[in-house]
Amino acid sequence: MQYQLIALDVDGTLLNDNYELTERTVSTLRRVHEAGSRIVLCTGRAPESSVPIMEQMGFEGVLIAHNGAATVETPGSRLLHEFSFPIGHIAGLVQYCRAEHVHFDLNTSWKMYVEHVGEAEAAMYEKYMAVPERVDDVLALTVPIVKFTMFGSQEAMDRVERQLASFDLPSSLQAIRSGAHFIDVMLKSVSKGRALSNLSGMWGIEPSSILAMGNYYNDIDMLRFAGLGIAMGNSPEEVKLAADEVALSNNEEGVAEALMRHVCPELAGQ
């Protein structure tokens, strides 16, 4: 079966744990592209830190960023879809993070804002190729935002996740664990699956012609939407159960192996 659209999560899926894109994976992706499939990154990252991954693959085009809150076209800065909300809706959450010393950043479709960056945060932003803009008070910003992200150790995020269960978030917002060290707050209407549905509809591609791969909870609805949803071997059990099959892990080039089997079987064994 020819899959017309290949939707790929980035961290924990396309990249290994050293944040590397292997030569074998790049070669396979290029062959898949040459075979006629569109490749779309579907990531929690911002466009700023996603475009370099596309450039490493030798591609340009559309990517789904911020867990589906923004869909953009590269090169340039054309915004295809955006789901934003006023900063005032998370004023209470900002105050909580300040009081509990939880690091946070605010994201528009294109920019990231922080109030401070410590050593651990600086190392994290460097790994993700993100360059946040520092401001004294994020609540003084007047731009609409698409994502509010909290960052910390896994233990700290486990604690925040428990406390958010009783936090009085506006009914229009949701908090989702997008990684062991991250919790994202976005509109409830936002998801990778919805963004992928919007994009595939715009291109006239049926879900049955979509192959999607991911490794974390924020990938589940994307995996369920696609005709073939593949969870990585390093995924939590809940993610594996939501998928149609489980691939090798991100450290075993699971993306390349799965695409060889399902899109370019003639590459198997190479």
UniProtKB/TrEMBL annotation:
MF terms (GO), sorted A to Z: magnesium ion binding; phosphatase activity
PROSITE patterns: COF_1
SUPFAM superfamilies with a match to the protein in the record: HAD-like
Gene Ontology CC annotations of this record: cytosol
CDD domains registered for this protein in UniProt: HAD_Pase
InterPro entries in the record: Cof (IPR000150), HAD-like_sf (IPR036412), HAD-SF_hydro_IIB (IPR006379), HAD_sf (IPR023214)
Keywords: Hydrolase
The protein's name: Hydrolase
